[in-house]
Amino acid sequence: MDINDDPTSSTSCLTIAQARTEWDVQKAFLDSCSYGPPPRRGWNALQRSLDEWRAGSVPWPRWAESVDTSRELFGRLVGVPADQVATGAAVSQLLAPIAAALPDGAEVLIPDIEFTSGVYPFAVHADRGVRVRTAPLNTLAEAVDESTTLVSFSAAQSATGEVADISATTRAAREVGALTVLDGTQAAGWLPLNASEVDFLAVAAYKWLCAPRGTAFLTMPSQLAAADDSHPRRAECFDRLKPLAAGWFAAGGAASYGMPMHLADGARAFDISPAWHSWVGTAPALELLLDVDVDQIHTHDLALANRFRTGLGLEKSNSAIVTIGLDDAQQSWPAALDRLDAAGVRYSQAGGNMRFGFHLFNDEADVDTALNAVTNSASP
After folding, report:
1. CA distance 370 to 337
2. Residues ≥6 apart with Cβ < 8 Å to 136
3. What one-character DSSP code corresponds to residue 301?
4. With the C-alpha atoms ordered 308, 312, 313, 314, is the resulting torsion angle positive or negative?
5. What residues does 133 pair with on adjacent strands?
6. Same domain, 90 and 157
7. Beta strand 348-350 with 353-357: parallel, antiparallel or unpaired?
8. Domain end marker among 287, 313, 339
9. In a shared domain, residues 186 and 237
Protein backbone atom coordinates (compact mmCIF):
# COMPACT_ATOMS: atom_id res chain seq x y z
CA MET A 1 0.00 0.00 0.00
CA ASP A 2 1.22 3.49 -0.84
CA ILE A 3 2.13 5.59 2.20
CA ASN A 4 -1.02 7.71 1.85
CA ASP A 5 -3.63 5.34 0.43
CA ASP A 6 -5.17 4.28 3.74
CA PRO A 7 -8.88 5.10 3.31
CA THR A 8 -9.30 5.39 7.09
CA SER A 9 -6.93 8.35 7.21
CA SER A 10 -9.52 10.82 5.88
CA THR A 11 -13.24 11.46 5.84
CA SER A 12 -13.04 12.48 2.16
CA CYS A 13 -15.00 10.76 -0.58
CA LEU A 14 -11.96 9.68 -2.59
CA THR A 15 -8.62 8.25 -1.56
CA ILE A 16 -5.44 9.49 -3.19
CA ALA A 17 -5.20 6.23 -5.14
CA GLN A 18 -8.73 6.62 -6.47
CA ALA A 19 -8.16 10.25 -7.42
CA ARG A 20 -4.90 9.43 -9.19
CA THR A 21 -6.79 7.33 -11.74
CA GLU A 22 -8.34 10.58 -13.04
CA TRP A 23 -4.99 11.72 -14.43
CA ASP A 24 -3.23 10.71 -17.64
CA VAL A 25 -0.05 12.57 -16.71
CA GLN A 26 3.25 11.10 -17.85
CA LYS A 27 5.60 9.47 -15.36
CA ALA A 28 7.63 11.82 -13.15
CA PHE A 29 5.78 15.04 -13.94
CA LEU A 30 7.00 17.16 -11.03
CA ASP A 31 6.23 20.61 -12.40
CA SER A 32 2.99 21.69 -10.73
CA CYS A 33 4.88 24.88 -9.87
CA SER A 34 4.50 25.80 -13.56
CA TYR A 35 1.15 24.24 -14.43
CA GLY A 36 -1.11 21.46 -13.23
CA PRO A 37 -2.29 18.84 -15.74
CA PRO A 38 -6.08 18.46 -15.71
CA PRO A 39 -7.99 15.53 -14.25
CA ARG A 40 -9.90 13.59 -16.87
CA ARG A 41 -13.24 15.04 -15.79
CA GLY A 42 -11.92 18.56 -16.36
CA TRP A 43 -10.33 17.68 -19.69
CA ASN A 44 -13.48 15.96 -20.95
CA ALA A 45 -15.72 18.85 -19.94
CA LEU A 46 -13.40 21.29 -21.71
CA GLN A 47 -13.34 19.19 -24.90
CA ARG A 48 -17.13 18.91 -24.94
CA SER A 49 -17.47 22.67 -24.66
CA LEU A 50 -14.99 23.19 -27.49
CA ASP A 51 -16.92 20.75 -29.68
CA GLU A 52 -20.13 22.62 -28.84
CA TRP A 53 -18.47 25.89 -29.75
CA ARG A 54 -17.20 24.48 -33.06
CA ALA A 55 -20.65 23.16 -33.93
CA GLY A 56 -22.56 26.14 -32.54
CA SER A 57 -24.82 23.65 -30.80
CA VAL A 58 -25.51 25.31 -27.41
CA PRO A 59 -26.13 28.84 -26.12
CA TRP A 60 -23.20 30.50 -24.35
CA PRO A 61 -24.90 30.83 -20.93
CA ARG A 62 -24.47 27.10 -20.49
CA TRP A 63 -20.69 27.58 -20.46
CA ALA A 64 -20.92 30.70 -18.30
CA GLU A 65 -22.69 28.71 -15.58
CA SER A 66 -19.27 27.21 -14.79
CA VAL A 67 -18.11 30.58 -13.42
CA ASP A 68 -20.56 30.58 -10.54
CA THR A 69 -20.04 26.86 -9.97
CA SER A 70 -16.30 27.46 -9.72
CA ARG A 71 -16.86 30.45 -7.45
CA GLU A 72 -18.88 28.35 -5.02
CA LEU A 73 -16.42 25.43 -5.12
CA PHE A 74 -13.41 27.68 -4.54
CA GLY A 75 -15.19 29.35 -1.64
CA ARG A 76 -15.68 25.93 -0.07
CA LEU A 77 -12.02 25.13 -0.67
CA VAL A 78 -10.81 28.18 1.28
CA GLY A 79 -13.66 28.55 3.76
CA VAL A 80 -15.66 31.60 2.63
CA PRO A 81 -19.12 32.02 1.08
CA ALA A 82 -19.41 32.47 -2.68
CA ASP A 83 -20.45 36.12 -2.37
CA GLN A 84 -16.95 36.90 -1.07
CA VAL A 85 -15.26 35.43 -4.17
CA ALA A 86 -14.48 37.46 -7.30
CA THR A 87 -13.41 35.78 -10.53
CA GLY A 88 -10.84 36.94 -13.02
CA ALA A 89 -8.00 35.85 -15.26
CA ALA A 90 -4.76 36.52 -13.34
CA VAL A 91 -3.52 37.52 -9.91
CA SER A 92 -2.10 40.88 -11.01
CA GLN A 93 -5.42 41.85 -12.65
CA LEU A 94 -7.34 41.00 -9.48
CA LEU A 95 -4.93 42.95 -7.26
CA ALA A 96 -5.06 46.13 -9.37
CA PRO A 97 -8.17 47.59 -7.65
CA ILE A 98 -6.64 46.96 -4.23
CA ALA A 99 -3.46 48.77 -5.22
CA ALA A 100 -5.47 51.66 -6.63
CA ALA A 101 -7.37 51.93 -3.31
CA LEU A 102 -4.18 52.64 -1.36
CA PRO A 103 -3.79 56.28 -0.36
CA ASP A 104 -0.97 58.39 -1.74
CA GLY A 105 2.27 57.73 0.13
CA ALA A 106 1.22 54.28 1.34
CA GLU A 107 3.87 51.71 2.20
CA VAL A 108 3.58 48.13 0.94
CA LEU A 109 5.68 45.46 2.64
CA ILE A 110 6.63 42.34 0.65
CA PRO A 111 9.09 39.44 1.01
CA ASP A 112 12.40 40.09 -0.69
CA ILE A 113 11.85 37.40 -3.37
CA GLU A 114 8.10 37.75 -3.87
CA PHE A 115 6.79 36.84 -7.34
CA THR A 116 6.23 39.96 -9.42
CA SER A 117 2.45 39.51 -9.74
CA GLY A 118 2.23 40.38 -6.04
CA VAL A 119 4.62 43.30 -6.38
CA TYR A 120 4.10 45.20 -9.64
CA PRO A 121 0.41 46.05 -9.08
CA PHE A 122 1.61 48.15 -6.14
CA ALA A 123 4.96 49.31 -7.55
CA VAL A 124 3.34 50.99 -10.56
CA HIS A 125 1.83 53.53 -8.15
CA ALA A 126 5.24 54.96 -7.28
CA ASP A 127 4.27 58.18 -9.08
CA ARG A 128 1.84 58.97 -6.26
CA GLY A 129 4.28 58.06 -3.52
CA VAL A 130 3.40 54.42 -2.91
CA ARG A 131 6.57 52.76 -1.58
CA VAL A 132 7.44 49.06 -1.72
CA ARG A 133 9.65 47.85 1.13
CA THR A 134 11.12 44.35 1.36
CA ALA A 135 12.10 41.98 4.17
CA PRO A 136 13.07 38.30 4.36
CA LEU A 137 10.04 36.02 4.44
CA ASN A 138 11.08 34.40 7.73
CA THR A 139 11.11 37.81 9.47
CA LEU A 140 8.22 39.41 7.57
CA ALA A 141 5.98 39.65 10.63
CA GLU A 142 8.72 41.40 12.60
CA ALA A 143 9.20 43.88 9.73
CA VAL A 144 5.61 45.15 9.98
CA ASP A 145 5.51 48.55 11.68
CA GLU A 146 3.34 51.65 12.01
CA SER A 147 4.36 52.84 8.54
CA THR A 148 3.00 49.70 6.88
CA THR A 149 -0.28 50.16 4.99
CA LEU A 150 -0.45 46.74 3.31
CA VAL A 151 1.47 43.46 3.39
CA SER A 152 1.53 41.39 0.19
CA PHE A 153 3.04 37.91 0.42
CA SER A 154 2.71 34.37 -0.91
CA ALA A 155 1.56 31.39 1.11
CA ALA A 156 4.31 29.37 -0.59
CA GLN A 157 7.15 31.15 -2.31
CA SER A 158 7.44 30.57 -6.05
CA ALA A 159 11.25 30.54 -6.18
CA THR A 160 11.98 28.56 -3.01
CA GLY A 161 8.80 26.78 -1.94
CA GLU A 162 9.14 28.30 1.53
CA VAL A 163 5.84 28.35 3.42
CA ALA A 164 4.91 31.65 5.07
CA ASP A 165 3.83 32.05 8.67
CA ILE A 166 0.45 33.43 7.68
CA SER A 167 -0.91 33.74 11.22
CA ALA A 168 2.08 35.69 12.54
CA THR A 169 2.11 38.07 9.58
CA THR A 170 -1.62 38.78 9.64
CA ARG A 171 -1.55 39.25 13.41
CA ALA A 172 1.27 41.79 13.12
CA ALA A 173 -0.55 43.60 10.31
CA ARG A 174 -3.77 43.81 12.28
CA GLU A 175 -1.97 45.36 15.24
CA VAL A 176 -0.94 48.36 13.12
CA GLY A 177 -4.07 48.52 10.95
CA ALA A 178 -2.39 47.21 7.79
CA LEU A 179 -4.23 45.26 5.10
CA THR A 180 -3.07 41.77 4.11
CA VAL A 181 -2.94 40.31 0.60
CA LEU A 182 -2.06 36.63 0.31
CA ASP A 183 -1.09 35.02 -3.00
CA GLY A 184 -2.10 31.37 -2.79
CA THR A 185 -1.19 30.39 -6.34
CA GLN A 186 1.65 28.06 -5.27
CA ALA A 187 -0.31 26.72 -2.30
CA ALA A 188 -4.06 26.39 -2.97
CA GLY A 189 -4.77 22.76 -3.77
CA TRP A 190 -2.16 21.21 -1.48
CA LEU A 191 -1.86 23.59 1.52
CA PRO A 192 -5.01 24.13 3.60
CA LEU A 193 -5.85 27.84 3.41
CA ASN A 194 -8.37 29.87 5.40
CA ALA A 195 -9.30 32.92 3.35
CA SER A 196 -10.93 34.61 6.35
CA GLU A 197 -7.49 34.81 7.96
CA VAL A 198 -6.44 37.54 5.50
CA ASP A 199 -8.17 40.52 3.91
CA PHE A 200 -7.60 39.36 0.33
CA LEU A 201 -6.60 35.96 -1.05
CA ALA A 202 -5.66 35.80 -4.74
CA VAL A 203 -5.13 32.51 -6.57
CA ALA A 204 -4.41 31.67 -10.20
CA ALA A 205 -6.02 28.27 -10.79
CA TYR A 206 -3.77 26.80 -13.48
CA LYS A 207 -1.12 25.41 -11.16
CA TRP A 208 -1.99 23.28 -8.12
CA LEU A 209 -5.73 23.58 -8.78
CA CYS A 210 -5.15 21.78 -12.11
CA ALA A 211 -7.39 24.13 -14.11
CA PRO A 212 -6.89 25.65 -17.57
CA ARG A 213 -4.89 28.85 -17.71
CA GLY A 214 -7.02 31.96 -17.64
CA THR A 215 -9.05 31.49 -14.44
CA ALA A 216 -8.29 33.10 -11.09
CA PHE A 217 -10.01 34.00 -7.83
CA LEU A 218 -9.93 36.82 -5.29
CA THR A 219 -11.58 36.61 -1.89
CA MET A 220 -12.42 39.78 0.01
CA PRO A 221 -14.29 40.75 3.16
CA SER A 222 -18.05 41.06 2.98
CA GLN A 223 -19.36 44.58 2.41
CA LEU A 224 -20.67 44.64 5.97
CA ALA A 225 -17.33 43.58 7.46
CA ALA A 226 -15.47 46.19 5.41
CA ALA A 227 -17.93 48.90 6.42
CA ASP A 228 -17.58 47.97 10.10
CA ASP A 229 -13.78 48.04 10.15
CA SER A 230 -12.82 50.22 13.10
CA HIS A 231 -9.27 51.14 12.08
CA PRO A 232 -9.34 54.43 10.13
CA ARG A 233 -6.54 53.50 7.73
CA ARG A 234 -8.15 50.16 6.84
CA ALA A 235 -11.58 51.77 6.59
CA GLU A 236 -10.19 54.39 4.18
CA CYS A 237 -8.79 51.70 1.88
CA PHE A 238 -12.07 49.78 1.87
CA ASP A 239 -13.97 53.00 1.12
CA ARG A 240 -11.68 53.66 -1.87
CA LEU A 241 -11.95 50.10 -3.22
CA LYS A 242 -13.73 50.10 -6.60
CA PRO A 243 -14.17 47.51 -9.38
CA LEU A 244 -11.99 49.37 -11.88
CA ALA A 245 -12.61 46.87 -14.68
CA ALA A 246 -16.39 46.80 -14.20
CA GLY A 247 -18.22 45.59 -17.29
CA TRP A 248 -21.35 43.68 -18.22
CA PHE A 249 -20.39 40.61 -16.16
CA ALA A 250 -19.85 42.71 -13.04
CA ALA A 251 -23.54 43.59 -13.25
CA GLY A 252 -24.48 40.02 -12.40
CA GLY A 253 -26.82 39.77 -15.35
CA ALA A 254 -28.73 42.91 -14.34
CA ALA A 255 -27.64 45.17 -17.21
CA SER A 256 -26.22 45.06 -20.71
CA TYR A 257 -26.65 48.59 -22.08
CA GLY A 258 -26.30 52.14 -20.90
CA MET A 259 -27.07 53.74 -17.58
CA PRO A 260 -27.93 53.66 -14.74
CA MET A 261 -25.17 51.42 -13.41
CA HIS A 262 -26.25 48.17 -11.78
CA LEU A 263 -23.29 46.42 -10.16
CA ALA A 264 -23.75 43.04 -8.52
CA ASP A 265 -23.62 42.75 -4.75
CA GLY A 266 -20.49 41.53 -3.00
CA ALA A 267 -17.30 40.42 -4.68
CA ARG A 268 -19.15 39.61 -7.90
CA ALA A 269 -18.91 43.31 -8.80
CA PHE A 270 -15.14 42.76 -9.30
CA ASP A 271 -15.62 40.00 -11.90
CA ILE A 272 -14.38 40.49 -15.42
CA SER A 273 -15.97 38.94 -18.50
CA PRO A 274 -14.99 35.25 -18.36
CA ALA A 275 -13.15 33.08 -20.85
CA TRP A 276 -16.00 30.56 -20.96
CA HIS A 277 -14.20 27.37 -21.88
CA SER A 278 -11.44 27.80 -19.32
CA TRP A 279 -14.08 27.98 -16.60
CA VAL A 280 -15.78 24.86 -17.95
CA GLY A 281 -12.52 23.01 -17.25
CA THR A 282 -11.99 24.68 -13.88
CA ALA A 283 -15.17 23.62 -12.07
CA PRO A 284 -14.60 19.82 -12.40
CA ALA A 285 -10.99 20.17 -11.22
CA LEU A 286 -12.08 22.02 -8.08
CA GLU A 287 -14.82 19.48 -7.50
CA LEU A 288 -12.28 16.66 -7.57
CA LEU A 289 -9.93 18.39 -5.14
CA LEU A 290 -12.84 18.84 -2.73
CA ASP A 291 -13.80 15.19 -3.17
CA VAL A 292 -10.29 14.18 -2.10
CA ASP A 293 -9.97 16.88 0.62
CA VAL A 294 -7.03 19.26 0.82
CA ASP A 295 -5.94 17.90 4.20
CA GLN A 296 -5.43 14.47 2.66
CA ILE A 297 -3.65 15.96 -0.36
CA HIS A 298 -1.42 17.96 1.99
CA THR A 299 -0.35 14.84 3.87
CA HIS A 300 0.33 12.95 0.64
CA ASP A 301 2.25 15.75 -1.07
CA LEU A 302 4.46 16.46 1.95
CA ALA A 303 5.28 12.76 2.34
CA LEU A 304 6.51 12.59 -1.26
CA ALA A 305 8.42 15.88 -1.03
CA ASN A 306 10.14 14.80 2.19
CA ARG A 307 10.99 11.41 0.71
CA PHE A 308 12.76 13.32 -2.05
CA ARG A 309 14.52 15.60 0.44
CA THR A 310 15.68 12.65 2.53
CA GLY A 311 17.08 10.95 -0.55
CA LEU A 312 19.06 14.09 -1.35
CA GLY A 313 20.36 14.39 2.22
CA LEU A 314 18.24 17.47 2.92
CA GLU A 315 16.20 18.25 6.03
CA LYS A 316 12.47 17.63 5.95
CA SER A 317 10.21 20.61 5.37
CA ASN A 318 6.57 21.70 5.44
CA SER A 319 6.39 22.40 1.69
CA ALA A 320 5.32 20.28 -1.29
CA ILE A 321 7.88 22.22 -3.32
CA VAL A 322 11.51 21.11 -3.15
CA THR A 323 14.16 23.48 -4.48
CA ILE A 324 17.85 22.90 -5.11
CA GLY A 325 20.21 25.71 -6.08
CA LEU A 326 21.42 25.19 -9.64
CA ASP A 327 25.03 25.82 -8.66
CA ASP A 328 24.71 23.46 -5.68
CA ALA A 329 23.21 20.75 -7.87
CA GLN A 330 25.95 21.01 -10.47
CA GLN A 331 28.60 20.83 -7.77
CA SER A 332 27.08 17.98 -5.75
CA TRP A 333 25.61 15.97 -8.62
CA PRO A 334 27.47 16.66 -11.88
CA ALA A 335 25.35 16.18 -15.02
CA ALA A 336 22.17 15.96 -12.94
CA LEU A 337 20.29 18.20 -15.37
CA ASP A 338 21.18 15.97 -18.30
CA ARG A 339 20.12 12.84 -16.41
CA LEU A 340 16.80 14.42 -15.43
CA ASP A 341 16.10 15.28 -19.06
CA ALA A 342 17.09 11.79 -20.19
CA ALA A 343 14.80 10.21 -17.59
CA GLY A 344 11.88 12.37 -18.72
CA VAL A 345 11.51 14.11 -15.35
CA ARG A 346 9.51 17.31 -15.71
CA TYR A 347 10.62 20.05 -13.32
CA SER A 348 11.30 23.77 -13.67
CA GLN A 349 13.89 26.41 -12.90
CA ALA A 350 13.18 29.73 -11.17
CA GLY A 351 15.25 32.25 -9.27
CA GLY A 352 18.44 30.22 -9.72
CA ASN A 353 16.80 27.08 -8.30
CA MET A 354 15.57 23.76 -9.62
CA ARG A 355 11.94 23.29 -8.53
CA PHE A 356 10.24 19.94 -7.98
CA GLY A 357 6.55 20.01 -7.08
CA PHE A 358 4.82 16.91 -5.69
CA HIS A 359 1.05 16.65 -6.05
CA LEU A 360 -1.75 14.13 -5.62
CA PHE A 361 -1.22 12.49 -9.03
CA ASN A 362 2.40 11.68 -8.10
CA ASP A 363 3.59 8.57 -6.25
CA GLU A 364 6.74 7.14 -4.70
CA ALA A 365 7.90 5.82 -8.07
CA ASP A 366 8.00 9.40 -9.38
CA VAL A 367 10.10 10.42 -6.39
CA ASP A 368 12.53 7.57 -6.91
CA THR A 369 12.85 8.26 -10.64
CA ALA A 370 13.83 11.85 -9.91
CA LEU A 371 16.17 10.81 -7.09
CA ASN A 372 17.95 8.30 -9.26
CA ALA A 373 18.37 10.90 -12.00
CA VAL A 374 19.72 13.59 -9.70
CA THR A 375 22.07 11.42 -7.65
CA ASN A 376 22.88 8.85 -10.35
CA SER A 377 22.28 6.06 -7.86
CA ALA A 378 19.86 3.18 -7.36
CA SER A 379 16.38 3.98 -6.04
CA PRO A 380 16.13 3.85 -2.23
Report:
1. 11
2. 111, 112
3. H
4. negative
5. 109
6. yes
7. antiparallel
8. 287
9. yes
Given this model, what pLDDT does residue 190 score? Answer: 98
Question: Does 11 have pLDDT greater than 80?
Answer: no
Residues 6+ apart with CB under 8 A from 228: none
Q: Which of 321, 325, 322, 320 is nearest to 337 (CA)?
A: 325
Mean pLDDT, the chain, integer: 93
Closest C-alpha to 162, from 115, 203, 93, 218: 115
Q: What is the pLDDT of residues 90-129, one digit of tens each?
A: 999 999 999 999 999 999 999 999 999 999 999 999 999 9
Largest CA distance in the chain: 70
pLDDT tens for residues 229-259? 889 999 999 999 999 999 999 998 766 788 9
As a whole-number percent, the residues of the chain with pLDDT over 90 amount to 88
One domain for residues 283 and 298:
no
For residues 100, 83, 289, 195, the Cα torsion angle rounded to the nearest 10 degrees is: 50
What CATH number should be reported for the domain holding residue 313? 3.90.1150.10
d(CA 92, CA 89) in angstroms, rounded, equals: 9
* Model pLDDT, residue 254: 65
Last residue of a domain, one of 253, 287, 321: 287
Paired strand residues for 132: 108
User: Which residue has better confidence, 2 or 325?
Assistant: 325
How many domains would you assign to the chain? 2
Number of H helices, E strands in the chain: 14, 10
pLDDT at 3: 39
In this predicted structure, what is the pLDDT of residue 191?
Answer: 98
The verdict on 266 and 149 lying in the same domain is yes
- Helices 276-292 and 61-78 pack at an angle, to 10 degrees, of 30
Same-domain status, 182 and 330? no
Closest CA to 237 of 133, 130, 124: 130
Q: What length does the chain have?
A: 380
Query: Can you state the angle between helices 40-55 and 61-78, rounded to 10 degrees?
Result: 160
Strand order, beta sheet including 348-350: 321-325, 353-357, 348-350
So what's the pLDDT on residue 256? Answer: 79
Q: What is the pTM of this model?
A: 0.94
H or E segment to which residue 108 belongs: strand 107-111
What pLDDT score was predicted for residue 12?
58
